Structures are given as C-alpha cells and as structure tokens.
Amino acid sequence: ITDDTAMLVDAAIARLIARNQQMGDFIWWYFGSKWTMVRIAETHKMSERSAREIIRQGVAWLDGALGNFCEAA
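The structure corresponding to this sequence follows.
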C-alpha cells in the first residue's frame, strides 16, 4: 500500500482507539502485533469468541471509516 493509505489507516485506528480503547487495542494486537485471538482472549480473561466479536466489530468500524476516504479518492 502507499504511504498515504498507510497514514489513513493509522489515523483511523487512532480514532478507533480514542473512541473504544479495547476494540482499538485488539485490532492493533491482532493485525499489527500478530497476536492470535486466543492470546488476546487469554490476556483479557475472556472467551475467544468474545475477542473475535470485538475484533470483527473493529474491522467493520474501520471499513466504514476508511470507506469514506476511498470514495473521496
């Protein structure tokens, strides 16, 4: 991806973290740090299913946030 796109993704993740700390952290750990969903769940004392749902919600939020930028381009 281009540097401009990477900056948009980074800014969107920062907005998500400001809006929902846990969701943003989970997205970062899963995609940025390559943690497994099991590791994220165990670290936060929750089921893997719960962690997976939070990550999916975060991906959907980012998709919506980045969709606006992609349409503008």
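The domain at 3-72 is CATH 1.10.10 (Arc Repressor Mutant, subunit A).
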